[in-house]
Amino acid sequence: MNLPNKQDILSQHPRSEDRLLAILHDLQKANSDNALSREDLQLVAAHLNVPLSRVHDALTFYSMFSLRPRGRHVIRVCDSPHCHLGGSWSVLEELQRLLGVKVGETTEDGLFTLELTSCLGVCGVAPVMMVDEEMVGNLTTERLQEVLARYREGR
Ligand code: FES
C-alpha cells in the first residue's frame, strides 16, 4: 500500500494552531498501524511552530489518538453513565468474546483493536460504539455480529 507523504499531509493544512487536531487525525489515518509516532508529533509541532508539549497534550486528551500501534479498525465502546445504564458492559463482554481480546488489545489477525471511550455525544441511542469513524448505536448482540461481519468483509 502506498502511504501518503507526511509533508504532503502537513502542507494541506495552514500553519494555524486550530488545525492541530485535524493534522493529527490525518497523520494517524495515513499510518498503517493506526497510530501516531513520536516523529509525527515533532513534525506537527514544527509545522505549527508550537511546543511539542502542546501537541502531546492534545494527543493524550483525546481518546481517538494513540501512540500505541493498533489494528486496521479501532472499536471504541462508550464507557460513560448513560451507556452504562443502557447496557454497555454486556455489549463490551460480548465484543470481547466475539473478538477474543480484552480492552486495549488487538485481534490476532490485526483487524480490530478494542478500546473504551467517554461519551460520544449520542446518548439517545445508547449503548454506543464507534468503529473507526462510524457511530453505531442501539447495540445488541445481533447488531454487533452484523457490524463485525461487515468490517471483516471490508464493506
Ligand atoms: S454516554 Fe454513551 S454516548 Fe453519551
Question: Layout of SSEs?
Answer:
Elements: H1 6-11, H2 20-30, H3 38-48, H4 52-61, E1 73-78, H5 81-85, H6 88-99, E2 112-117, E3 129-131, E4 134-136, H7 141-152
Parallel strand pairs: 1-2
Antiparallel strand pairs: 1-3, 3-4
This protein binds FE2/S2 (inorganic) cluster (FES).
Residues 78, 80, 82-83, 119-120, 122-123, 126, 128 line the site of FE2/S2 (inorganic) cluster.
Describe the protein.
The chain is of the alpha+beta class and 155 residues long. It has 2 domains: 6-61; 73-152, Glutaredoxin. It is 43% helix and 12% strand. It is built from 7 helices and 4 strands. The protein has a 4-stranded mixed β-sheet with strand order 2-1-3-4, covered by helices on one side. A hairpin with a 2-residue loop joins strand 3 and strand 4. It is globular, with a radius of gyration of 17 Å. Residues 78, 80, 82-83, 119-120, 122-123, 126, 128 line the site of FE2/S2 (inorganic) cluster.
Q: Give the CA-based shape.
A: globular
CATH classification class of the largest domain: Alpha Beta
Query: Any ligands, ions or cofactors bound here, and which?
Result: FE2/S2 (inorganic) cluster
Radius of gyration: 17 Å
How many separate domains make up the residues?
2
Summarize the biggest pleated sheet: 4 strands, mixed
- How are the strands of the largest sheet arranged? 2-1-3-4
Question: What is the count of helical runs?
Answer: 7
Helix content: 40-55%
Distance between the termini: 18 Å
Mean pLDDT: 94
Number of strands: 4
Q: Write the element-wise H/E pattern from the N-terminal end onward.
A: HHHHEHHEEEH
Structural class: alpha+beta
Strand content: 5-15%
